[in-house]
Amino acid sequence: MEEIPLELFINAVLSNYSLENSSYTDNLFENDESLPYYGEYLARFQSQYILYHGYLTLAFCIFGITANILNIIVLTRRKMISPTNAILTGIAVADMLVMLSYLPYTFHTYIRTEISDIERYSYGWTLFTLFHSLFTVVCHTISTWLTVTVAIWRFLFISFPQNASIWCSMFRAKWAIAMTYVFSAIFCIPIYLTFTVYVFKSTAGDIMYRVDFSEIASQHNRLLEKTNFWIFSVITKLVPCVALTGISLGLIKVLYERNKRRQILKGSANNDKHHDRTTRMLLAVLLLFLFTEFPAGLLSLLSGILGSDFHQHVYMNVGEVMDALAMINSAINFIIYCSMSQQFRNTFALMFFPRFFKTALHSVTASV
Predict the structure, then answer these.
(1) pTM summary value
(2) 309-329 pLDDT, tens per residue?
(3) SS3 label, residue 327
């Protein structure tokens, strides 16, 4: 296996904007040569998409921050408190933190195109870029494993209802959230040691700064660099996706069997129907996660297996698209909750549109 750069695995676009790589696309168009893995076509796509990526990501961040604040407010109301909703609240907090960090990063990197290289690669912004990259890795890791946790939680709840109150208690949910936050930060310690800020001079002699591998990462035949690649491309990407795929299939099977049994019995308790609606909502959250995260994990793995050609000509050219998919995953849960949970809708409407909600409820009651 060929050794490949790791920048893209702490931030999907970090190395795209290093000064050394800034002329890659221009040289490609000038040479007009055929590249491995259709690299010339992907580079042309990237050069067009990058014009819109900053504005799309900025819109996703603004919407996502607002949506996750609403998620937190609604899910923490007294009537909404439950172990599952506590974990969903933990996910909302992590997703909101990711987008709060992405907001200034996106504006500086993609939208402020008129600034000079000296300002773009100043020490302050480079230090923020390093912080942003590490901070978002930690928060995204938290969100990922809390998503796996809520999937396991739901599977246990519907598969072993007799033990659900013990296994899936509020106390255990709070401990699961706290441990995920703590251990995710600890788990990412190797990546904190892998990168640092370096000073360099441009061709004009100006002093600028960039994020690059640390001396520790280069020691022992780049052992730390290689270890981080496999940890953050496989453990934090593919392993959760594989686990969620299996759990999602299990949830679908349970829902199918319940629906079939309900048809045979010609009806069931309203409580079972409520649990099934909750399961379908959580299943939608899991499938969205798989749709947005699995491509990035697969491309990361292929980069490690196929080497630098695939990384340079494929992954580097679709990094921004993977970034946008991650933003969608962090922002859209509010829409899923509103569209699939009547309890969430009612709580949200009662909090933010009380007059309209009470009028609508009175009309429904009168018609009945």
Answers:
(1) 0.84
(2) 887 888 888 888 988 888 898
(3) helix
